[in-house]
Amino acid sequence: SCTAQGRKPVTSGTKAPAFKLSDFSGKVYTDKTFEGKVLFIDFWASWCPPCVASVPKVDELHRAYVDNPNVVVIGINLDTNTRQAERFINENEIPYIVLQGGNSSVGNDYGVRGIPTFLVINQSGVIEKRYTGFRPGYEQEWRTEIDRLLQ
Q1: What domain range includes position 107?
Q2: Residue 18: left if φ>0, alpha if ψ -120 to 50, beta else—which one?
Q3: What's the CATH number where 9 sits?
């Protein structure tokens, strides 16, 4: 994983911090937008090789739940160069919501120290699971965790 200085990680069992971020078309989303849903967040950047490697798996996850109104998969991009991030999103035809977080405190608020960082947040806005870095097999764990919360 690509590391950065952050505050202590926000751990499982704690309420996910509030956020207000826009996507690359300027549409604003907040944590409240996703209230009552299982939320999967991928914190990533276009300059981070493990992040880039994980994008197809996050895309697969998104497609697996695209018809389920109770699950939302989003990316929070941490590039400070938004043009570079937007180019990456367009070139890779990323279909899920990607929010601009590179010039905000969101990474720090969520205690992101290494990227990619993946979070599974339950319907009450509580962090259930946190994964730092990417390795093959994570996508199966993500699905297991999401399915458990949907039961």
Answers
A1: 2-150
A2: beta
A3: 3.40.30.10
Euclidean distance between CA atoms 121 and 87, whole angstroms? 28
Specify the higher pLDDT residue, 4 or 78.
78
Residues paired with residue 38 on neighbouring β-strands, in sequence order = 71
Nearest to 111 by CA among 17, 38, 39, 33: 17
3 state SS of 99: strand
Token pair of 20, please? 């207000």
Q: Could you tell me what percentage of the chain is helix, strand and coil, using 3-state DSSP and rounding each to the nearest 5?
A: 30, 30, 40
DSSP annotation of 15: B
Chain segment 94-106, per-residue pLDDT in tens:
999 999 999 999 9
Q: Left (φ > 0), alpha (ψ -120 to 50) or beta: where does 88 sit?
A: alpha
Look at the chain and report how many structural domains it folds into.
1
